[in-house]
Structure formats: C-alpha cells, structure tokens
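During the second half of the funding period, the structural biology subgroup turned its attention to how the target accommodates small molecules. The most pressing case was nicotinamide-adenine-dinucleotide, which had performed well in the primary screen but for which no bound structure existed. We therefore specified the complex as follows and requested a full 3D prediction, including the ligand pose.
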Amino acid sequence: MDLDLKNKVALVAAASRGLGRAVAEELAAEGASLVICSRQQETIDRVANDISAAIGAEVLGVAADVSQPDDVVRLVNSGIERFGRIDILVTNAGGPPAGSFQSFTLDQWEAATRLLLHSAVELARQVLPGMKERRWGRILNITSIAVKQPVDNLILSNSLRAAVTGFARTLANEVASFGITVNNIMPGYTRTERVEELSRMMAEKEGITPEEFVAGWEKEIPMRRIGEPREFAALAAFLVSERASYITGTSIPVDGGWIKSLI
Ligand code: NAD
C-alpha cells in the first residue's frame, strides 16, 4: 500500500526516544520530511542526524518543552521556516507521574494538564491555520489504553487522556470539512525506554527481576507479550496518510488485546 507521504511534512512531538521516535522513523521511511522535538538540543540533534543518516530523510531537530506554549510556537515556526508548512501533526509528551488521588497537589494536576492537554491543544492551534488554508491535514494524538479502561494508580494519566480525547473528538467535527482528520492512538504496554526504566524500578521495589515484573503485565494481555514501538508506529503511519482519509474522530488501541470491551 502506498501511503503517499513522500511530499508531506510531519511534526512529531517528544520524539527523541520511545513511541515518538518510532513514529518519526516510520514516517521518514515512508518519505516524509520531519520536524521532531524533545527538551535537550544536543539529544534531539543526535536523533535527527541518526534518522537522517539511516533513512535519508530531511529532519529538523528543535529543542522544545511541549508543556510550554512559547516553546510550541517556536517549534511550529521553526518547522514552517525550514519546510514551508506542516501537513501532519503527531502530539506526544512524556508520561505524568504515577500515584493515587491522595498523592497529588493541585500544582501537580496543573503541571500534568500543561504536559498532556495544553500541549496537544497548543500544537493543534499552531498548525491548524495552515492545514485549513491548504484543505489537507492530519492530527494524531498519542494517548493511552487508560482512555478506555483506567489503569490503577495512574490518576493523572487516566483523567487527562480522557480530556485530550474529548478535545480531539470535538475538533474532528469542526475541521472535517477542511479535509483534516483528528484521531488518537491508544498504546498498550509497549517496550520503550520509559517502560524498561519503570519495570527495573518496580522490580527492585518488589524484590523481583524486571522480567518477572513485566510477566505480570503480560498475563493481562491476550497476546502474552508487550508490544514493540514499530507495531505502534505502523498504525500511526497509516492514520496520517492519504489512505486514511475517511477515518476521523476515533481512538484505536495497539494493545495486543488488553482492552476487554466490545467497542
Ligand atoms: P519515553 O519516556 O520512552 O519517551 C518520551 C519522549 O518524550 C522522550 O523523547 C522525551 O525526551 C520526550 N519528552 C518528555 N517530556 C517532554 C516535554 N515536556 N517536551 C518535549 N518532549 C518531552 O515514553 P514512551 O513510552 O515513548 O511514551 C510516550 C507517551 O505514551 C507517554 O505520554 C506515555 O505515558 C504514553 N504511553 C506509553 C505507553 C508505553 O507502554 N510505552 C503506554 C501507554 C501510554
């Protein structure tokens, strides 16, 4: 299937590693030019060079903290300056801390809101005028399986991913007639650096090996394994392509069957 991404410019946020990086690599392999960001210039430059060298794509790395609106404006403007436009936006950010209701102050709720909700809103606000003008665009938010089935002890993520989903569903209706789609992918447990760090930390706390800790998750997954970032990225590439032109306002899991609901 030709995804027709060859002349497209994609901005992938929070892409120095993990799911964001996997999506960036997949889009580059399909021929898109890329704008990628993370918070450290040195790191994002290294990743931009690596992707460029491995795949031959044009990649601009920008240091930007997506929870800061000024950084988001600078990020989008840098991309437009370099490539003339942004056709595809993939929103992403680091995960908020785990914890129960009692463990968070209002300041921590506000920080998580800036990180997960405001980042997606502001990125969309900055790219939409150009997409509307060209009457083509793709917005894809990386959310979580927590949208369909809240995960214990992740109250910040459970609450704010739902907010992003409400925002995306409403925006999808507003911009559909401009040829712009807005969708979300809900990753399940996927083998990224964050998940590896988390499993090492939790295993140490529980006095077991990281493999034993991950096996606890795998018991809950019908495929009996956690996912690989490239399995997630394959769906992302399809959803931002021309071929997904009639899919909008939806959330699709890549979770090995973890969500047990019918729809
Ligand atoms: P990761 O920690 O491996 O990678 C996160 C990336 O985001 C890094 O490149 C980091 O530099 C960047 N980043 C973090 N905060 C940023 C900020 N404020 N501004 C700009 N860049 C920032 O994480 P991951 O596993 O790839 O997860 C990505 C997102 O998907 C997270 O929000 C996570 O909670 C969510 N998620 C992941 C899984 C999973 O199993 N991996 C499951 C469900 C949801």
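Two results from this model are relevant to the next phase. The chain has two domains: 9-188+228-251, 189-226. The mean pLDDT is 97.
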